[in-house]
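== Protein entry: sequence and backbone fold ==
=== Local backbone shapes as whole numbers ===
==== Amino acids and backbone structure tokens ====
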Amino acid sequence: MATECSWLVGLGFRTPCGRLVRHFYVVDGMTDLEQAHGAALERANDPGERAVRGNLRLDDGCVEMRRMSRDLLGSWRLSVPSPCPA
């Protein structure tokens, strides 16, 4: 049985001079990393989000995915980075 959880998804973008800039998206209610990755890409491609980001181009090879969970005291914990779905 899959349960919903929160994910921290880091997407890489390239500036015109080639520098890598990473933007992170918190995605809630997804059962697996493929769903979380898709939701983060959808957000990143929103016209308003793209405008705020200066229309930087996405670097498909630069993605970081971490599962977010809370411990018994309510502190957030991040999993080790997961390989991103292709």
Summary: The first strand starts at residue 5 and ends at 14. The CA atoms of residues 4 and 17 lie 39 Å apart. The mean pLDDT is 87. The two ends are 24 Å apart (CA to CA).
